[in-house]
């Protein structure tokens, strides 16, 4: 199993942050998005927020490849629709590459 951690900012607006959280409640999430995440080899995914900064922790199958997931998403109309909706709330990190939303974090410490 692999663990990948990503960061992304939300627009610093309490109303937009509340709407983003609304869409991420289990009863409001789109089943097609959940299916695409699991189908790509993601075992568990959690998103945490502090202020307007988000942290996503993904536990994946060993063979998971982020670039393959990105290619699958690019051909999935429902994922593209979801991404357009989420773009209303998200703001790329200042050091994000062009067209990059979630930025892969580098682990700098481990207790074990």
From TrEMBL:
Looking up SUPFAM superfamilies in the UniProt record yields:
Dimeric alpha+beta barrel
Q: Which GO terms describe its molecular function?
A: racemase and epimerase activity, acting on carbohydrates and derivatives
Recorded hits in Pfam families, A to Z, give: rhaM
The positions making up the signal sequence are none
The domain of life for this entry's organism is Bacteria
Q: What is the name of the protein in this document?
A: L-rhamnose mutarotase
